[in-house]
Design brief:
By secondary structure, the protein is an alpha/beta fold. The chain is built from seven helices and seven strands, in the order αααβββαβαβαβαβ. The protein folds into two domains: 6-54, Orthogonal Bundle (Helicase, Ruva Protein, domain 3), CATH 1.10.8; 64-198, Dna Topoisomerase Vi A Subunit, Chain: A, domain 2. A five-stranded mixed beta sheet has the order 4-3-5-6-7. The longest helix is centred in the N-terminal third of the chain and has 17 residues, at 38-54.
């Protein structure tokens, strides 16, 4: 690596910090940036800074947004009585791409994992119950992952929701055990959403 100037080595090192990017890919990306027109490099750097400066969590669903309220929550065509609970913003995007859901979302930003010290206060569960207490939601769809932690999170939320006059369902099987929603194909996600079922407590 010493055969590159310090500035190139530094960019390679920073690219390599990105998930899924190894040293060889980081090197290719760096050389691509170097060979591209200056404006392309400027646009890339501006877009990275813009993301860091503008993107925040929607104050309703905690999805990613450039404004206080995201495009989905502010869309009057969405069914506000239907609330889908997911772990991460990427899970919401995966469901949106499937085209199977026209309600709104609640992003937990994690899952319950007592072994890792992650309890109800560490994710957006209190905020979920606050939304339920406004009595606008008729059905909650629990679309957490099918991992042990995802199932535990869904069970915990379902049990707490028994005190409310609300329908609680879980996305149907079809999503593989231990699967991450971001990597599930759209047809499988569509079927899982359409064939959701009640949770047996």
């Amino acid at each position: 690596m010493q055969y590159y100037p310090a500035s190139i080595r530094n960019l390679i090192k920073n690219f390599a910090k990105l998930p899924g990017i190894g040293e060889k890919t980081a090197e290719r990306l760096t050389l691509h940036v170097l060979e591209s027109p200056k404006k392309e490099a400027e646009d890339l750097s501006k877009s990275i800074i813009e993301v860091k400066e503008k993107v925040r969590c929607c104050i309703r669903c905690f999805g990613l947004s450039d404004a206080d309220i995201c495009g989905i929550c502010s869309n009057t065509g969405r069914d506000k009585t239907l609330l889908c609970v997911v772990e991460q913003p990427g899970d919401m995007v995966a469901i949106e791409k499937s085209g199977a859901f026209q309600g709104v979302y609640h992003i937990l930003h994690g899952f319950l994992s007592p072994m890792d010290g992650i309890g109800p206060d560490n994710i957006k569960i209190k905020e979920l119950f606050s939304r339920v207490e406004k009595k606008e939601v008729i059905e909650i769809i629990l679309a957490t992952s099918t991992s042990m932690e995802g199932d535990a999170t869904a069970s915990y939320i379902a049990e707490k929701l028994t005190q409310y006059p609300i329908k609680v369902t879980r996305i149907a099987s079809g999503v593989p055990i231990g699967g991450d929603l971001k990597y599930v194909d759209q047809v499988t996600l569509k079927r899982a959403m359409e064939n959701r079922h009640a949770i047996l407590l």
